[in-house]
Amino acid sequence: MDKTPKIFIDNINDDYVGRIREAFDYLELGSRIKHGDTVFIKPNLTFPHYVEGVMTSYECIESLVIALKDYTNKIVIGESDGGGYNRFSMDEVFEKTGLKEIEEKYDIQLVNLSKLSARNIHFEYKRKQFAVPMPTLLLDEADLFITAPVPKVHSNTGVSMSIKNQWGCIQEPKLRLKLHPYFAKVIAEINKSIKVAISVIDGTYGLNRNGPMRGDAVKLGWMMACDNILAGDIVCTEIMQIKPESIKYFYTTNNGQQLPNADSFQFNQNYKQFIGPKFKLKRDFLDYPGFFAFRSPFLAYLAYHSPLSKLLHKVLYLFREEFYEYK
What we know:
Layout: E1 6-11, H1 16-26, E2 38-43, H2 58-68, E3 74-79, H3 90-96, H4 99-106, E4 109-112, E5 118-125, E6 128-135, H5 136-141, E7 144-148, E8 152-154, E9 158-160, H6 173-179, H7 183-194, E10 196-208, E11 216-226, H8 229-239, H9 248-253, E12 266-267, H10 288-295, H11 297-304, H12 309-316
Parallel strand pairs: 1-12, 2-3, 2-7, 3-4, 7-10
Antiparallel strand pairs: 1-11, 5-6, 8-9, 10-11
């Protein structure tokens, strides 16, 4: 890390806009953007309709828009189609979560990233060449990228917060499935290419026991903003009482180096007063097929892209409900 990360954390206390404005002042946002600059907000919209602890809350997104209006008139909110193997349209999610109302009320722009023009980012990993298409809006047009995740456990990656939230910037859900075995490297390269500047972690609710969709919502009532996504996730895992060292992809984001200690960061107040309740991942038996496919190129192909994939999913759903409810 080139400079000491700055982290703002506080209870929401029925004034989300006020907390975000204080956070932006603390992070000196005014030195990074000016009126007319384009700010892109990436919430976590990983379900067909709003679910507490799974998705970024309406209040967080609306408060972000209101606070950002103090700085610029060009605000874009975006996400790609979701669902992985069972795709659903992000346009419908915008309607069901009320984000279309935010678009009209505040004269901002909602975009389905799956429908935008893209160009490839290129990198090498384990002697394999990768070309991952990313929206040109994020690569070339946005002046500031703000990620707005939720603190939750994840059955495949351990946790999901600021770093992982950009997985939803990959436009094609089936490509995400194909890239799962290379997740740590791919997400590090994505975050590097789109230059994620700020994370606002929506701690209205967290997700415990199982994730990213089927766990237990836990009411937390705080928000965190930081100018370094790795630092933010390290602190968030500490607050969740999960050891940052147990999250392997953090190391890839940190170029394979030892993780910095949270106490070395700059805070507006002592973050330790926000610790609790304890989060713990408890995988169900039927999580393991996906867990192993997440780590194996062959199993990922077999589960999601082979001629047997439909049959395998039909058998799985005889014993487990599908993740997504299309209400």
